[in-house]
Amino acid sequence: MKSPSPGHIATWRFEMIAPLLDESLSPAQRAEAALQHASHPVHWPSGDERVIPRATLYRWTKVYRAKGYEGLLPKTRKDK
Question: How high is the mean pLDDT of the chain?
Fold first, then answer.
């Protein structure tokens, strides 16, 4: 399988966090949405099917709010 492009990964990440970006949600509703989202496996761009940890959803949300789409682009791992 061909590796997904960085743009494809960033777009997929945005799709995963979009419900958490709704400003009309209270913090409790946002937490409940993250919990629901993290309890169901999804297809990752790599082809795997697994859940997205809540911490990852919150990290992607935080970086998106700070840096926008650019923040969702994958970074080179520091442990390589």
Answer: 91
